[in-house]
C-alpha cells in the first residue's frame, strides 16, 4: 500500500467491546484514533489465541517498542478493512499530530483568506537560527576523507640517459626461467566418466519366411473346329424370312441403317483434304516434266534380222517378261499377196526378260509368221497366236515357266530342241519334227507349239486379231459331262480379212464324241515329239471353230474384211475368283448353221444369253468401223443365220485400221487408229465419232490407251515418234511427243508392273523392242481425272447431237 | 412383302454393294452376295458384334450397342444389331 507500518485489521464486535472501540460509539469518523495498551493485546492474544483479531499481526505487536499501540478506525476503508493498526511510533506520532496541525492550518488559512484582500507590506525575511535536522550527519558520511597519509616517492635518473638510442632484442620467453607461467591441460581424473551402462537396441528377425509361386493352371476349355459353315436350308430360310420377328427387326433397324447410308452419301467424312491439296498442286502447278524414259531395248540379230515385230505381249504374271512376235518386213504390196510367201526363215516368238537384254529367254516356234498372239488370261502358260496363213496356233509353256521366273540367272544346261523346217506347201503344213541337238547353253529354249487349227476350217487370210474371251462366255452348251469342267474351258475369237469372225473353243480334255466324228486328216497324223506337252493334243489339226460369223450385210450384201475387233466385255481375271457370277450360258437358237456343226454331239439348241452384250466393233481393211451384233437369228428369206441387227458403219479412216481398242476405264469408249487420223467412238452413238483427229502428216501406225490414266493414249507414227495425247489438256494436238526410233512404230503395249513402275513397250519396224518407263505424271491419274474425262466425253456427245 | 420392300430399299441406296441378314446364331438368312463370301462376312461380323456389345455392356450395364460401323479403305461395313437378328450392309462411300 505504500505505508509499510499500516496493517489493516478486521475487528469483530467482540473485540470492539473488549477494547472499547465500538464503531459509532467509542470510535467515530472524526475521532478515529484509539490507543490500546500493548499488554492488553498480548493478554487477548493469549486468551483467545487464533480467533483473536490481532493474530495476524502478533509478531508486529510483540516487537512493538512502545507501550501503547494506535488503532485507527478506517471508515472509508482506505486500507481495505474497517480498522488499521499502525506499527511504528513515528507513524503514530505523525498520525496523531498532523491532523491537528492540518486542522489548525486549515482554520488559519480560512481566516487569512478573508484578510488577504488588503495589500501586504513587503517584509524582508528575518534571519532565523539554524535548526539542525540531521543533515550534517549525512554530509559527513558522504564526504571522502583520507584515512591514510599519502606516501610520496621521487624517482630520478641521470639526464644523459634520457633520449639515448635503444636497441631492442627478441628473447624467447621459454628460455628464461619463470618468465612465464602456463597452465597446461591435463586429464583430470575427476571428470572422466566410465560408462557402466549403455542402452542398446536389438531387432529380432524371425526365421520364418513366406514365399509363393504361380503355377500354370490349365483349366479345361472347349474347343471346336468347323469344317464347313452352318447354313440353313431353303425352307428354314423361308420360314424365318416370313416370321414376325424379322418384320419387327427390320422396322426397328432400317431407320438407323438409312441414316448411316445417307450420311455416307452426303459426304465422305474421312476425306483427307491435305492429301488432295498436294495432288492438285502437282497437276496444276507449272509444266510438269513429261517424258518416257528409255528403260531397255531388246533386239536379236539372229532371229530378228530383217524382220519387224508384229505384236507385243507382256507376260501377265511374271515381272519383266515380254513376248514379241516377228514377221517378215514386207512392203505394202507384198502384204496383200501373203499367200504366196514361202518360209525362208524360222519365225519365232521371242521372250525377253528385263534382266538379260542380250539373249531372249524363250522362243516359241511358229509354223508361220505370227501376226498376233495373246496370253490366256486364266492360265498364263497358254498362248494363242494367229498365223499369216489363217491358222490358229496354241503353245503351252508351263514347263518353262519356272525358267522364266528365274530369268535372272542365265539359263544353262537345257537341251534345246532344234527344228528342221519342212518347206511344204501351205495346204500340207502339218507338224514339224523336233530333233534334239546339242547346242550351247546360251541359246534360248525353243518351244514347239502344241496345236494348230485345222486348215480347212481356219481363216483363209491372215489372222489379224485374236482375243481370249472371259470365262463366262459360253457359246455352246456342252453335254452334261462337260459342265463341271467349266473353269478350264477357254474361248478364243479371231478375225481375218476374209470377212469372217471365228469363235474357237478349247475343251479341256478329249471328247470321246469328237474323236469319233472327227474328220481325220488323210492319214497324216504324225506322232508328237516326246518333249512337247500334249495339252492340246486332241485338238491338233482337228481343231475347229465353234461359230463362224460372216460379216456381210444382209441387204446390201457387202462384205467386210475385219482387221481388228473389239468385244464388249473382256475382263481378264488372272486369278480365278469365285466372285464372278456365273451367268447362264449363251444359247443361240440355230439349227441350220453348218458352221456350228462340231465334232461334239451335243445340242444345237442354244438360248440367248440375257445379260451379256453381244455387240462388237470391227475395224476393216478398208478403213471402216463396223458396229454389229453376233446374235444369230434366222433370216426369214434365206433361212440362213445372218446378223440380224442393224449394223452401223463409219468410214473415217482412209486406210486399214491398225488399232481398235476399248478404253480400260470406260466400257463404251473405243479408240480407232488408222491411216492418217484416229477417232474416239462411243458405243451407242451412231452419228459419228466423239473425237476425230485432224489428218496428220505421217501415218499413224499404232495406238493404245494408257492403262492408268483415263484420258491418255499413245499413238505411234511411221516416223518413229510416239504421240502422247491427253484429253484433258489438249484435244487438237498431242500433249507430248517423243522420238523412239528411226523406223515406223509397229506396236505399242503399256504395262503396269508395279504401282511405281509403269512401262510401255514399243516395237519398231527394225525389229527392236524398246521398253520405256512412263514418268509419274503420265502414269498417275489426278484425283478427279476419271470424272473429268467422263464429263468431257459427255460434252462431246452433246455437241454431236 | 414388307420385308422384301425394306431390303430392296436399302439395297437401292447409292454405293451399296451388299446386304446380308443374319440370325442370332450367325447363320445368314438373306443375302445379295454369293454364298462363300456371305458366310465369311456373317461369321466374322457376328463375332465382332458380340464382342462389341459385350464391351459396351461391361462398361455400363444399362447401355447397349445400337450400331457398328467399320470404315476400311475400300468400303464401309455397317452392322445394325438386334436381339435376334443382324443387318449387315456394305457400302462404297461416295468419292
Automatic annotation (TrEMBL), chain A:
GO terms for cellular component: inner dynein arm. It is found in: Cytoplasm. Its main location: cytoplasm. The keyword DNA damage does not apply. Residues 95-116 are annotated as: Disordered. GO terms for molecular function: dynein heavy chain binding; dynein light chain binding. SMART domains: WD40. GO terms for biological process: cilium movement involved in cell motility; inner dynein arm assembly. The keyword Cytoplasm applies. InterPro entries: Dynein_IC, WD40/YVTN_repeat-like_dom_sf, WD40_repeat_dom_sf, WD40_rpt. Keywords: Cytoplasm, Repeat, WD repeat. It comes from the Eukaryota. This is WDR63 protein. It comes from Spizaetus tyrannus (black hawk-eagle). The gene is Wdr63.
TrEMBL record, chain B:
One of its GO terms (biological process) is microtubule-based movement. Residues 3-91 form the Roadblock/LAMTOR2 domain. One of its GO terms (cellular component) is microtubule. The keyword Isomerase does not apply. Its main location: cytoplasm. Signal peptide: none annotated. InterPro entries: DYNLRB1/2, Roadblock/LAMTOR2_dom. The keyword Ribonucleoprotein does not apply. Keywords: Cytoplasm, Cytoskeleton, Dynein, Microtubule, Motor protein, Transport. Acts as one of several non-catalytic accessory components of the cytoplasmic dynein 1 complex that are thought to be involved in linking dynein to cargos and to adapter proteins that regulate dynein function. Cytoplasmic dynein 1 acts as a motor for the intracellular retrograde motility of vesicles and organelles along microtubules. Belongs to the GAMAD family. This is DLRB2 protein. It comes from Spizaetus tyrannus (black hawk-eagle).
Amino acid at each position: 500500500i505504500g505505508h509499510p507500518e499500516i496493517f489493516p485489521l478486521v475487528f469483530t464486535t467482540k473485540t470492539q467491546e473488549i477494547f472499547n472501540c465500538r464503531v459509532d460509539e467509542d470510535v467515530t469518523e472524526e475521532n478515529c484514533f484509539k490507543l490500546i495498551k500493548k499488554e492488553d493485546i498480548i493478554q487477548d492474544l493469549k486468551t483467545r489465541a487464533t480467533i483473536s483479531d490481532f493474530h495476524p499481526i502478533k509478531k508486529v505487536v510483540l516487537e512493538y517498542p512502545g507501550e501503547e499501540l494506535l488503532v485507527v478506525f478506517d471508515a472509508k476503508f482506505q486500507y481495505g478493512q474497517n480498522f488499521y493498526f499502525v506499527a511504528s511510533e513515528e507513524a503514530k506520532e505523525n498520525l496523531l499530530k498532523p491532523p491537528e496541525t492540518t486542522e489548525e492550518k486549515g482554520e488559519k488559512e480560512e481566516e487569512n483568506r478573508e484578510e488577504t484582500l488588503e495589500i501586504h507590506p513587503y517584509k524582508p525575511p528575518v534571519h532565523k537560527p539554524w535548526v539542525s535536522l540531521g543533515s550534517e550527519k549525512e554530509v559527513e558520511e558522504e564526504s571522502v576523507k583520507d584515512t591514510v597519509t599519502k606516501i610520496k616517492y621521487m624517482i630520478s635518473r641521470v639526464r644523459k640517459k634520457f633520449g639515448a638510442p635503444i636497441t631492442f632484442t627478441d628473447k624467447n620467453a621459454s628460455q628464461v626461467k619463470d618468465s612465464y607461467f602456463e597452465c597446461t591441460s591435463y586429464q583430470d581424473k575427476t571428470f572422466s566418466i566410465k560408462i557402466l551402462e549403455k542402452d542398446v537396441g536389438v531387432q529380432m528377425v524371425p526365421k520364418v519366411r513366406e514365399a509363393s509361386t504361380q503355377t500354370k493352371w490349365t483349366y479345361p476349355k472347349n474347343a471346336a473346329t468347323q469344317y464347313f459353315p452352318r447354313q440353313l436350308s431353303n425352307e428354314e430360310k423361308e420360314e424365318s424370312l416370313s416370321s414376325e420377328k424379322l418384320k419387327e427387326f427390320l422396322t426397328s433397324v432400317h431407320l438407323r441403317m438409312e441414316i448411316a447410308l445417307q450420311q455416307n452419301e452426303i459426304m465422305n467424312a474421312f476425306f483427307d483434304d491435305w492429301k488432295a491439296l498436294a495432288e492438285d498442286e502437282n497437276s496444276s502447278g507449272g509444266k510438269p516434266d513429261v517424258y518416257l524414259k528409255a528403260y531397255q531395248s531388246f533386239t536379236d540379230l539372229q532371229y530378228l534380222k530383217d524382220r519387224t515385230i508384229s505384236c507385243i505381249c507382256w507376260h501377265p504374271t511374271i515381272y519383266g517378261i515380254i513376248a514379241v512376235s516377228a514377221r517378215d518386213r514386207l512392203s505394202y504390196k507384198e502384204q496383200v499377196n501373203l499367200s504366196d510367201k514361202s518360209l525362208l526363215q524360222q519365225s519365232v516368238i521371242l521372250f525377253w526378260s528385263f534382266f538379260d537384254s542380250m539373249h531372249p529367254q524363250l522362243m516359241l516356234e511358229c509354223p508361220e509368221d505370227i501376226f498376233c498372239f495373246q496370253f490366256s488370261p486364266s492360265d498364263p502358260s497358254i498362248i494363242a497366236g494367229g498365223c499369216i496363213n489363217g491358222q490358229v496356233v496354241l503353245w503351252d509353256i508351263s514347263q518353262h515357266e519356272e525358267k522364266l521366273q528365274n530369268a535372272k540367272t542365265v539359263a544353262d544346261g537345257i537341251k534345246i530342241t532344234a527344228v528342221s523346217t519342212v518347206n511344204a506347201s501351205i495346204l500340207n503344213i502339218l507338224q514339224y519334227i523336233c530333233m534334239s541337238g546339242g547346242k550351247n547353253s546360251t541359246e534360248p529354249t525353243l518351244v514347239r507349239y502344241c496345236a494348230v487349227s485345222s486348215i480347212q476350217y481356219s481363216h483363209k487370210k491372215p489372222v489379224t486379231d485374236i482375243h481370249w474371251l472371259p470365262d463366262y462366255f459360253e457359246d455352246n452348251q456342252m453335254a452334261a459331262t462337260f459342265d463341271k469342267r467349266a473353269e478350264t474351258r477357254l474361248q478364243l475369237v479371231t478375225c481375218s480379212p476374209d470377212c469372217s469372225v471365228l469363235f474357237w473353243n478349247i475343251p479341256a480334255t478329249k471328247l470321246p464324241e469328237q474323236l469319233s466324228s472327227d474328220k481325220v486328216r488323210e492319214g497324216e497324223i504324225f506322232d508328237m515329239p516326246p518333249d512337247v506337252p500334249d495339252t492340246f493334243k486332241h485338238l491338233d489339226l482337228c481343231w475347229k471353230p465353234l461359230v463362224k460369223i460372216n460379216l456381210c450385210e444382209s441387204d446390201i450384201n457387202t462384205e467386210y474384211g475385219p482387221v481388228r475387233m473389239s468385244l464388249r466385255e473382256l475382263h481378264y481375271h488372272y486369278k480365278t475368283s469365285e466372285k464372278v457370277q456365273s451367268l447362264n450360258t449363251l444359247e443361240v437358237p440355230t439349227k441350220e448353221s453348218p458352221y456350228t456343226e462340231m465334232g461334239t454331239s451335243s445340242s444345237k439348241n442354244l438360248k440367248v444369253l440375257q445379260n451379256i452384250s453381244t455387240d462388237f466393233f470391227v475395224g476393216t481393211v478398208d478403213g471402216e468401223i463396223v458396229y454389229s451384233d453376233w446374235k444369230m437369228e434366222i433370216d426369214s428369206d434365206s433361212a440362213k443365220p445372218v446378223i440380224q441387227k442393224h449394223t452401223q458403219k463409219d468410214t473415217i479412216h482412209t486406210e486399214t485400221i491398225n488399232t481398235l481398242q476399248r478404253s480400260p476405264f470406260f466400257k463404251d469408249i473405243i479408240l480407232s487408229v488408222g491411216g492418217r487420223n484416229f477417232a474416239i467412238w462411243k458405243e451407242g452413238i451412231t452419228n459419228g465419232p466423239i473425237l476425230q483427229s485432224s489428218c496428220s502428216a505421217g501415218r499413224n501406225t499404232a495406238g493404245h490407251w494408257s492403262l492408268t490414266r483415263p484420258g491418255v493414249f499413245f499413238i505411234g507414227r511411221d516416223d518413229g515418234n510416239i504421240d502422247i495425247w491427253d484429253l484433258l489438256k489438249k484435244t487438237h494436238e498431242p500433249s507430248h511427243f517423243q522420238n523412239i526410233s528411226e523406223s515406223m512404230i509397229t506396236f505399242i503395249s503399256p504395262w503396269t508392273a508395279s504401282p511405281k513402275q509403269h512401262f510401255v513397250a514399243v516395237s519398231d519396224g527394225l525389229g527392236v523392242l524398246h521398253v520405256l518407263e512412263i514418268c509419274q505424271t503420265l502414269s498417275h491419274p489426278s484425283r478427279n481425272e476419271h470424272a473429268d474425262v467422263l464429263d468431257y466425253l459427255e460434252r462431246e456427245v452433246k455437241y454431236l447431237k | 412383302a414388307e420385308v422384301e420392300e425394306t431390303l430392296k430399299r436399302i439395297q437401292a441406296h447409292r454405293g451399296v454393294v451388299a446386304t446380308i441378314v443374319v440370325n442370332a446364331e450367325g447363320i445368314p438368312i438373306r443375302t445379295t452376295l454369293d454364298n462363300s463370301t456371305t458366310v465369311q462376312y456373317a461369321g466374322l461380323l457376328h463375332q465382332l458384334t458380340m464382342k462389341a456389345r459385350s464391351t459396351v455392356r461391361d462398361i455400363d450395364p444399362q447401355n447397349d450397342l445400337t450400331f457398328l460401323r467399320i470404315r476400311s479403305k475400300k468400303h464401309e461395313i455397317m452392322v445394325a444389331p438386334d436381339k435376334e437378328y443382324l443387318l449387315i450392309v456394305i457400302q462404297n462411300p461416295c468419292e
